[in-house]
Structures are given as structure tokens and as C-alpha cells.
């Protein structure tokens, strides 16, 4: 019985870590060795629905009228963390994607941007604490998200266009999703010019809507 319990625990550990895995499993995630993996629930002409397991991130928040300004400051803090500004002084490998939680507010209001770097599998269980009080470790819950992909650069304008396109597609099928925020998601380093991949995510709040598509995982 003890052996069986230990085996189950070991398998669960492997399963949890497998959600942060080899980048070769995703065709668009090729700049880092580890990427956030997912299960495809279904796909339509306008969006995908994905399931993500709960994982740990290192994050920071910035409030600003200008998205690009907030992302520049946030990226610098998180980059410092993975290059040694942590309580163990260790270098932590960059992963993908970089995820930004964007609060939905009026154009004239300042928005809260929460940028997060995915922690590699080896640091998912016991990540080193940050030394900057503006940086923190957080977990995202088990999620089902609606996803639309696009190329080019992730900016305020491209993110707004993608978010508007996805929300229009979801409203057309009466999908239930969180309207208070969305995620702006990037897979490439700032210096890459071509073959860039970005996404917008909206969190499903009910059974996902996938009309005229075959469910991959019932």
C-alpha cells in the first residue's frame, strides 16, 4: 500500500511537471527549451479552446495609461529575477510564453498590467523568492481559455484589435467568458523580427462553445 501510494504520488508529480515541457511539442514555441503545454479541447474557424493546468509564475504589476511603458518596466524586473535577483542567486532559464493580464477599463483610465514569466519545470515546486518587493510568485488555476493567434508585434493596438476580434467571435455564439480582463501572450524575444507568434486569451466561464467543430477531448 505504501509503495502504491508513493507510485501514485510520483506519477502525479510527473503529470504536473509535464505541463511545462519540451518546446518541440509546440510548432510556434521554438526560442526556449521549455514552454507552457496544453490540451486542445476544440477548434473553430475563429478560435481555439485550450485547457491549461495550474502552474507557477514569477510576476509583477504596473499601472499605466500606456501599455508599452508598463511592459518595458515589468519585463526589466522579471528579467532581473531570472538572471540572479532572487534569494538563491541562481540563473533561471527563460521559458515561453510571457503572459500579460490586462484589466478591461475605459480608454481614458489607467490599466493594471500583470506580466508573468513561466517558471521552468525544475522550479515549479520550489521557486526561489524574489529580492525585489515588486516581484512575486503566483499560481494560475486550472483554466479553459479561448485563444486567437496573430503575428507581428504585441503592442497596445495589436492586442486591442485581437481582443476585440475574439470577443466579437465569442459573443456571436453566446459564449460565457470573463469580461473583466484578458491575457496578452507573446512567444518571442524582443529582438526577433520575423516569424513572431502572439495570442489573446479569454477565460471560459462555462462549458466552452465550439459550434461546427469536433471536440478533441470530450
UniProtKB/TrEMBL annotation:
Highest rank taxon of the organism: Eukaryota
Keyword Cytoplasm: yes
Pfam families: SOUL
UniProt GO molecular function: heme binding
Signal peptide: 1-18
Subcellular location: Cytoplasm
InterPro entries on file: Reg_factor_effector_dom_sf, SOUL_heme-bd
Entry's Gene Ontology cellular component terms: cytoplasm
Protein family according to the UniProt entry: Belongs to the HEBP family.
Quaternary structure annotation from Swiss-Prot or TrEMBL: Monomer.
UniProt protein name: Heme-binding protein 1
